[in-house]
Amino acid sequence: xxxxxxxxxxxxxxxxxxxxxxxxxxxxxxxxxxxxxxxxxxxxxxxxxxxxxxxxxxxxxxxxxxxxxxxxxxxxxxxxxxxxxxxxxxxxxxxxxxxxxxxxxxxxxxxxxxxxxxxxxxxxxxxxxxxxxxxxxxxxxxxxxxxxxxxxxxxxxxxxxxxxxxxxxxxxxxxxxxxxxxxxxxxxxxxxxxxxxxxxxxxxxxxxxxxxxxxxxxxxxxxxxxxxxxxxxxxxxxxxxxxxxxxxxxxxxxxxxxxxxxxxxxxxxxxxxxxxxxxxxxxxxxxxxxxxxxxxxxxxxxxxxxxxxxxxxxxxxxxxxxxxxxxxxxxxxxx
Amino acid sequence: xxxxxxxxxxxxxxxxxxxxxxxxxxxxxxxxxxxxxxxxxxxxxxxxxxxxxxxxxxxxxxxxxxxxxxxxxxxxxxxxxxxxxxxxxxxxxxxxxxxxxxxxxxxxxxxxxxxxxxxxxxxxxxxxxxxxxxxxxxxxxxxxxxxxxxxxxxxxxxxxxxxxxxxxxxxxxxxxxxxxxxxxxxxxxxxxxxxxxxxxxxxxxxxxxxxxxxxxxxxxxxxxxxxxxxxxxxxxxxxxxxxxxxxxxxxxxxxxxxxxxxxxxxxxxxxxxxxxxxxxxxxxxxxxxxxxxxxxxxxxxxxxxxxxxxxxxxxxxxxxxxxxxxxxxxxxxxx
Lengths: 335, 335
Fold this sequence. Notes:
Two copies of one chain form a homodimer. By secondary structure, the first copy, chain A, is an alpha/beta fold. Chain A folds into two domains: 115 residues, Isopropylmalate Dehydrogenase, CATH 3.40.718; 156 residues, Isopropylmalate Dehydrogenase (3-Layer(aba) Sandwich), CATH 3.40.718.10. Chain A is built from twelve helices and eleven strands. The model of chain A has no long low-confidence stretch (mean pLDDT 90). At the A-B interface, helix 8, helix 9 and helix 10 of A face helix 8, helix 9 and helix 10 of B.
């Protein structure tokens, strides 16, 4: 029998919670019963949702918390008030090793700050990073950092390379992922000093954990030739959001250009297109580099998207991600 | 009668030149004869193309140059060999005030380096920047810097704000453009130190030349609410290329998802969509901040795209862009 994965869930985070949380758990349990969920939040609300489902109660324990961190609170304000919030308690359960991984659809900034306050970084990791799955022509890439660290040095980027490739191996395959640094050109002399230094560190330290492919430009992120793309949190956040905005713009203009007849004849084609790029399939950003992994679900996703983020948690725990990261590290003199 | 705009053209730059150059000139002359073109490059090749057109020869003077800068040459190598190249001579004609503006579809890196070598910056401008037109839901925005300066301080970004808004006013309207800084969040405390300092400079120096709207995130670039978007050259280049890659990815997947019947019924809709987003309409990046403006056409564009970049040149000269920039500058103590 496979290991039971214990997930600490902030049951109040995100739109339409705890309803979508319990429905998401129900979707997962229909295929996989090797889970146990610690649910943090308003007991009566959670119980009400659980009572609508047949078998969910056997796989859950509710821990009542009085407070909730709101989406518009600054990380600092959230951290101050947070001791009796569902988010804080869920992360605390990781610290106490009661659970294997934690999951929240709440305020991202607050989640990063609380995770760093409560959890230690992995020995040798300078800064944790936020990683996510990015669709491409062939499958998906891992991209990091997406906003946890506005400024990074070569030690940070080298750590991100090790963590990102360990994550890719956990989620997809056992082969060595192809890895590249996001830059504004392909030549060795392109970009800023931090990128140039990281380039030479990764070139000189070829490991068995990834194959270093040099630089990648923004227009090739989605080609599918690179599995792990490393960048600082500022650039990664700009790239991710620009891609999101462009995708919305093109899709909207495309649909607006179709007349009624072509819309009718394109119904199934449009559905196929939508299914392939369904953002719920890519739901679940991972906060990497802490002694326990923390997963962030999109706040506005639904139960299907939330179920996907639970599956991400399961893959990460089964693949021993933290051990993989620890054994993959490249030693760099910190600046 | 309107002023004759004198354009110095590197007739050898880009794919399929000088053929597309002469065809592009012919397209422009059919609607507007207030132009004179100095064409730099291989005389026999240019003459051969001109002889195929009816009236082009009256509006052109050919200046023979022996060398060409290739697309894969580094800017340094190009600058060394460049004294008798079509690109160098075209920029030199600006320096000598023989022409009003210069246009090339050649190697971008080399063009920036040669322009900086030969032309002075406008008094008060710390660094020139590369600006381009970006389609949005309502019309087009000006985005800069797109790669001329990897690292920027608050003085550079403030200059970019002044230059970008002057360019927007030259190309489109006389109203004050709405301007924002590209960042990873909307709150005043978001981003790096340079952005925070630039934010407070622009907030305190409200001018009549633009309306400062604070920060904009990558997913809102194409909404059309902001006319001028300011960023450093590294971030701008990543954002532009990521948008380009995403647009290709979505369009390709959309078309692949259409079956034969829906493709048949969507023919005119797809054509409408393609026309609206035709990249040739956005052709013409502008190198701003030098005492004469230099326009860069996409290397792979055709004669229609090249004609668009000639129109951009005409608008810039007619609107007295350089004077507009000079009178718009905000004084910032350089770091």
